[in-house]
């Protein structure tokens, strides 16, 4: 499977702007999670991370986007960061087709936010990172298959 980015959608409610993207990524959710929820992963495709405490209420600092706190954290599924200067950014992972994953991204902000084209460029880099198969911190190795028959001398 190769990655793709669906056309972003934008909504405005009063002073609040909401930008949504659906990004189809090659790789299991467990492999994509470190890319949206670790300093090293975010640094590969989004921006350098000055701070990230991986827990609800933890501190977060994303260079060029601002500092704030983790406002949602569901391991391997949801990472949401609310940044003082940039608003709320949410990464929601779902299982996709063909061993792939779907990233549902939301950026909610007031005033001037990160342009849609900047997010699209970042997601193109994320797809490249996932397609390259480069090791990512926190990536779990695949489980070894269980032997069909007991090995000699093995108790069953």
Task: Note the main attributes of this structure.
alpha+beta; 38% strand; nine-stranded antiparallel β-sheet; 156 residues; 3 helices
Give a quick summary of the entry:
This protein is of the alpha+beta class and 156 residues long.
What's the helix count? 3
Proportion of strand residues: 35-45%
Rg result: 18 Å
Taking the sheet with the most strands, its summary is: 9 strands, antiparallel
- The low-confidence parts are 138-147
Shape: globular
| Overall SS class | alpha+beta
Distance between the termini: 39 Å
* N-to-C order of helices and strands: EEEHHEEEEEEH
| Helix percentage range | 10-25%
Task: Average the pLDDT over all residues and give the rounded result.
Answer: 85
Find the count of extended strands (DSSP E, 2+ residues): 9
What is the strand and helix layout of this fold?
Elements (H helix, E strand, L loop, with lengths): L3 E2 L3 E5 L2 E10 L3 H9 L1 H7 L3 E4 L6 E4 L3 E9 L3 E6 L3 E9 L5 E10 L5 H17 L24
Antiparallel strand pairs: 1-3, 2-3, 3-9, 4-5, 5-6, 6-7, 7-8, 8-9
Helix pairs in contact: 1-2
